[in-house]
Specification:
Blueprint (H helix, E strand, L loop, with lengths): L11 H13 L10 H9 L2 E6 L10 H10 L3 E5 L7 E2 L5 E2 L2 E12 L2 E9 L20 H6 L6 E5 H7 L2 E6 L2 H4 L9 E9 L21 E5 L33 E10 L14 E8 L1 H4 L15 E5 L7 E8 L2 E9 L6 E9 L3 E5 L5 E2 L1 H4 L8 H11 L7 H15 L8 H11 L7 H21 L6 E3 H10 L2 E2 L2 H11 L5 E3 H20 L12 H8 L3
Antiparallel strand pairs: 1-8, 2-5, 2-8, 3-4, 5-6, 6-7, 9-16, 10-15, 10-17, 11-14, 11-16, 12-13, 12-15, 18-20, 19-21
Helix pairs in contact: 10-11, 11-15, 12-13, 12-15
């Protein structure tokens, strides 16, 4: 029922299995799955799956891929798919079973070169009995290579391997696992953690869709092409989970090998609740020199539709979707996404390359334009001044109640569609623009100028005149108003100010803008030596924090 060792005094394996089951919630959710999930979990490497097509019995470059992977100490496995569980065939293979690929070898028979793979059945028994197996006596070479003992390990010709196996799973180990100088050279790796959030950055997988540009984006720069492999008879191609192949045989254009891996985090434990993995994948776009200078913030995302797609992964309902790409040196944009807009999940994107590369998340630096914090000069109409003075009385100042009585009906009268500003928002406006919890005529003129500008911005991005903006439009409106926020802060604001229908009405927009102005003003007053560090006392921090 559980993993066990042939040695009665060896017990670490079931203990490790129990810990793994606790990590995911139960033994039940570990049932089935893919070999690569265990590879990745126990090594921290990056997994990829190659599907072998029966109509392509000898895909060029695959032997070289396996040889390179084993030289880099990658873990390699192979499976023969089955619709009825595990069963043994007449040739000694077990359908529906996972095998390890442990070595490659070339044998010359006259003018013919035979390419061999060494496989191992993890049971430690039940072996292939065809050509080149331990028992094969066709030339005697097979026995010389493998040794005639029942240890589960055997040699197999590459063509026979294609006929009997359906998938190859490779886990490329990270430099941390391999150590400073692994055999055959190491990988260079970047890791990014992210999350798709409904109504914010879960924009779906169709590049032509309106919301696609909201997906997380990562810029990849490849500068050094791989070394040419003179020995192989074909290009490595571009193998992914769909088994697609890249450039034609004999192409000598310098290329960089990049392995991209997208993992859904913390999803396996949800199997006990009947939930499955989301369908996810990623697109890779090429960024030309003319657009490169614009690619420093999310404001450049409007150019995404004009980019040339260089590659893409398949979109699969699997935990780990990976693709080995062969790309020319240059700049690229990697856009991971869920297939359906609105799907939510945590994800990890990892980038492996044989040569050095740079990779950064496309994000904005938190800042505010000067005009966003300055008081716009909008002369106050004489009627408004008189109305203010009548309500203010002899003290010539307003409290929250009078601010509500004035701002709500006047703002409503100036709007294209009926809008409300509630008492709670008026309290926030008094905290932001008033002095001592009240508002004189001078400070009211500041508030009124901002309100009119915010109203114009809101109308601009409320294109359907519904009186609300969606979360995507909110991000555009904040940028137009002069506030440049990184992805994490924008996500926090979106979650804070949208309603249950993922909409932001005018009052929520006003509250958000007032909050940003107050925070940026306080931070600018307490910057320490121009180093971007804000120093606040506990009382000052509480004052800023309680504005929400």
């Amino acid at each position: 029922m559980f993993v066990c060792s042939d040695q009665r005094n060896e017990f670490w394996a079931p203990l490790l299995e129990k810990a793994y089951a606790k990590l995911h919630g139960s033994y039940e959710v570990m049932r089935g799955g893919h070999m690569n999930e265990a590879f990745v979990d126990f090594t921290g490497g990056v997994g990829e799956v190659l599907y072998l097509k029966k109509d392509t019995p000898n895909p060029p470059g695959l032997f070289s891929i396996l040889r390179h992977a084993l030289a880099k100490e990658s873990l390699v496995g192979a499976t023969a798919l089955s619709d009825r569980g595990e069963y043994r065939t007449e040739d000694g293979l077990v359908k529906g079973h996972a095998y390890s690929v442990t070595g490659t070898h070339k044998v010359s028979l006259g003018f013919t070169r035979v390419r061999l793979l060494r496989l191992r059945n993890p049971w430690g028994r039940v072996e292939w009995n065809g050509a080149w197996s331990d028992r094969w006596d066709g030339s005697g070479v097979g026995g010389c290579l493998a040794g005639e003992k029942e240890d589960g390990e055997f040699w197999m010709e590459l063509l026979d391997f294609f006929r009997h196996f359906d998938t190859i799973q490779i886990c490329s180990l990270s430099p941390e696992v391999l150590g400073p100088s692994p055999a055959g050279g190491g990988w260079h790796i970047h890791t990014f953690q992210g999350r798709w959030v409904r109504g914010f950055n879960s924009g779906g997988s169709q590049p032509g869709a309106e919301t696609f540009w909201t997906n997380p984006q990562f810029r990849l720069t490849l500068l050094e092409p791989d070394e040419e492999d003179e020995e192989e008879d074909g290009s490595l191609g571009c193998w992914g989970a769909a088994g697609a192949r890249g450039p034609a045989r004999g192409a000598r254009t310098p290329k960089c090998t990049v392995l991209l891996s997208l993992i859904q985090r913390n999803q396996r434990r949800l199997r006990a609740q009947g939930l499955r993995y989301l369908t996810v994948g990623f697109h890779v776009f090429q960024v030309g020199p003319r657009l490169l200078g614009l690619w420093d913030s999310p404001r450049s995302r409007a150019h995404l539709s004009g980019l040339l797609r260089a590659d893409r992964s398949p979109f699969c309902a699997r935990r780990d979707v990976s693709r080995r790409c062969r790309l020319r040196p240059g700049h690229y944009l990697v856009v991971p996404s869920a297939a359906r807009a609105g799907d939510e999940a945590d994800f990890t994107l990892r980038v492996f390359s044989e040569r050095r590369h740079t990779a950064v998340e496309v994000d904005d630096v938190i800042s505010a334009d000067l005009h966003a914090l300055m008081v716009p000069y909008i002369p106050l109409e004489l009627e408004l001044q008189q109305l203010f003075q009548e309500l203010a009385g002899e003290v010539r100042r307003w409290g929250c109640g009078k601010c509500y009585l004035f701002v709500f009906p006047v703002a409503r009268a100036h709007a294209q569609t009926p809008r409300e500003i509630g008492l709670r928002t008026c309290e926030q406006l008094l905290q932001c623009f008033g002095h001592g919890g009240s508002l004189d005529l001078y400070h009211f003129q500041q508030l009124w100028g901002h309100l009119l500008e915010w109203q114009a911005t809101f109308d601009k991005f409320d294109e359907d005149a519904s009186g609300t903006m969606n979360s995507y439009e909110l991000r555009l409106a904040l940028n137009a108003a002069g506030f440049h926020l990184n992805n994490q802060l924008t996500q926090a604001l979106t979650s804070r100010y949208r309603d249950s229908r993922l909409r932001v009405d005018f009052e929520r927009f006003v509250s958000c803008m007032a909050q940003l102005i107050c925070v940026f003003r306080h931070c600018s007053q307490h910057l320490d030596g121009g180093e971007g560090v804000v120093c606040l006392t506990h009382r000052q921090w509480m004052q800023v924090a309680t504005f929400s």
